[in-house]
Amino acid sequence: MRRRPAALAIAAVLVGGLAACGAESGPPSLTWYINPDDGGQAEIASRCTEQADGAYTIQTELLPREASDQREQLSRRLAANDDSIDVMSLDPIYIPEFAEADWLAPVPDDVADTVTADVVQGALEFSTWRDELVVAPFWANTQLLWYRESVAEQAGLDPANEPVTWQQIIDAANEQDKYLGVQGIRAEAYTVWINALVMSAGGEILPAPEAEADELQIDLDNDAGRSAAQIISTIASEGLGGPGLPNQDENAAMMQFRSDNGSFMVNWPFVYTATVAGVEDGTLSQELLDDIGWAPYPQVGDQDSRPPLGGIGLGVGANSQYVEESYDAIECIVTPENQAYYFVSNGNPPASSAAYDDPEVQDTFPMADVIEQSLENAGSRPQTPFYNEVSTGLQNTWHPPTQVDPQATPSEAEEFITAVLRGERLL
């Protein structure tokens, strides 16, 4: 009986030693935390595991659907020094926060050269913080102006060949008693619209985004801010956004655009593949699809537009046990071939310019060249570790759209967000 504990201890050591040897003898298993999609990231993980030829395997873990929930889940674990987070699909709006908190492993110089070769300007912007590449551009997204060709023709507009302004599409919708597809919901989609309008008017909500919270300067009480507010106020007060504007997100705008009251819409490229799918399953008519055109984002006055910018960057957890292998995996994930596959299969546009030349991309997305050009001109939302305060502050002060006052709302938003950043007000 006295010898039994010793025997058990020896057995435990032997078992532990065997388990350790077993773990060390197998290839590292990398975990890639992915945002929800139609299975494209899992397929790319499988492809890159096969290409690694035993050097490592990649498994995927699904993050929540909302970007804010993704941020919360990852940030909590990263702050707790979780070493099981290897590769992460990160929304651009939270990349500065993660970089500033030292939650991202530095990108090696040779990897940076590879993953930024021939990448659209917008993707480079959201992948960089304090002049350093902190994530690898994976895919980039932007909004286009979608229009019913019959409505544009009656208005004497040719958006595909001549830039159009917000005022022109407002007038066209008004004259033909149609709705404009915009996103007025109190959510991130509304921030996207506000920011695109301000930037298209020549402004910038946060001119120096790298400053500390108590030094950040919000810049809305100016001509650009008032121009943006005027466009939103006009669309809302004249009922051009439709009856559901205060709760209208991207999907609701698409549904309204497809109706008999549709005219023009600003939205992401998913609306095209969704409409094609509707025609194929018989829920939408071919006549509708044939009446849909696309063009660059509308201008504010005579200035070049700055379309919204979205996408995903791939970061490596600072506490990952397999940083080198994770960056090897990222180099595989972001190849132009995989980005082209992801675009065709899941509808998410590539960050790589070379991927747009893929014949299947060109065939599936006739507007691929317009998307690529828009990504070169796209304007990023404020790149700051305090983005949540800025975005939520905008939504609080600019919502509902019917209450936007061009003379008052920009200054009120500026004062409110500044007070929040200084710790003087609560969201």
What are the salient characteristics of this protein?
427 residues; alpha/beta; D-Maltodextrin-Binding Protein, domain 2; 2 domains; four-stranded mixed β-sheet; disordered N terminus
Strand content: 5-15%
**What is the H-and-E element order?**
HEHEHEHHHEEEEHHEHHHEHHEEHHHHHH
Unreliable stretches (pLDDT < 50, length at least 5) are: 1-23
**How is the main sheet built?**
5 strands, mixed
Total helical elements: 19
SS class: alpha/beta
Query: Using DSSP, what is the number of strands?
Result: 11
User: What top-tier CATH class of the largest domain fits best?
Assistant: Alpha Beta
CATH superfamily of the largest domain: Periplasmic binding protein-like II
Helix content: 40-55%
Note down, in words, how this protein is organized.
With 427 residues, this protein is an alpha/beta fold. The protein folds into 2 domains: 175 residues, D-Maltodextrin-Binding Protein, domain 2; 205 residues, D-Maltodextrin-Binding Protein, domain 2. The chain is built from 19 helices and 11 strands. The strands form 3 sheets. The chain has a 5-stranded mixed sheet with strand order 2-1-3-11-6. Strands 8-9-7-10 form a 4-stranded mixed sheet, with helices on both faces. Strands 4-5 form a two-stranded antiparallel ribbon. Strand 4 and strand 5 form a beta hairpin. Helix 9 packs across helix 18 and helix 18 packs antiparallel against helix 19. The radius of gyration is 24 Å and the shape is globular.
Question: SSE layout and pairings?
Answer:
Elements: H1 4-25, E1 29-34, H2 40-52, E2 57-62, H3 67-79, E3 87-90, H4 95-100, H5 109-115, H6 121-126, E4 128-129, E5 132-133, E6 136-142, E7 144-148, H7 149-154, H8 166-175, E8 179-181, H9 188-200, H10 223-237, H11 250-258, E9 262-267, H12 270-280, H13 286-290, E10 292-295, E11 309-316, H14 323-333, H15 336-346, H16 359-364, H17 368-377, H18 387-398, H19 409-421
Parallel strand pairs: 1-2, 1-3, 8-9
Antiparallel strand pairs: 3-11, 4-5, 6-11, 7-9, 7-10
